[in-house]
What we know:
Blueprint: H1 6-23, H2 25-38, H3 42-163
Helix pairs in contact: 1-2
Protein name: DUF3782 domain-containing protein
Keywords: Coiled coil
Coiled coil: 35-141
Amino acid sequence: MPEINEIDVERVIHEILPRILREHPEARWEIERLIRETAMTREEAESRFEKLLEENRRIWEEIRRMREESERRWQESERRWRELKEESERRWAEWERRWEELKEADQRLYREMKQGDQEVRRELKEAIEALSRRMDQTIGALGARWGLMSEEAWRRGMAGILREVKGLRVEHYLAYDGEGEV
C-alpha cells in the first residue's frame, strides 16, 4: 500500500470529495447526519459564543479592576513616600535650625564669657591697683607719722644738748622745697 502524505490528503479533500458528494447524494447525507449529530446547533454555538464573550468581558473587567486597584495602591504608596520624605526633610530642617541656634548660643555664651572674663580682669586689676595705692598711702602715712615722731624726738634731744652750749639758740624752721633739691 502506497504511503499518503499531507499534500495527497489536501488534494483528495479539495478535488475528490466535492465530486463524490455530487455524484453520491447518500454520502453527502451521511456526512450531513454525522455533522448534525456531532456539531453544535446555531443556538448552541451562539450560546457558547455568548458565554465566552461574557467570560472574556468578566476577565477584562477583572483586569481593569486590578489595574485600578494597583494604580490606587501605587498612588497611595507614592503619597506616603512623599509624606515621609516631606516629614524627613522637615525634621532635618528643624535639626539644622536647632543646631544653628545652639551654635549661635554657644558663640554668644563664649563671647559673653570672654567679655565677662575681660571685665572681671579689668575690675580685678583696678581693685589691685586701688589696694596698692591705698597700701602705699597707708604705709606712707605711717612712715610720715613715724618719721615725724622720730624726727621730733631727735630735734628735742638735739635742742636739749645744744641749749647747754652757751651762745646757741635752737629754733623750729619749716620750708617747702618746690624743686625737689633736698
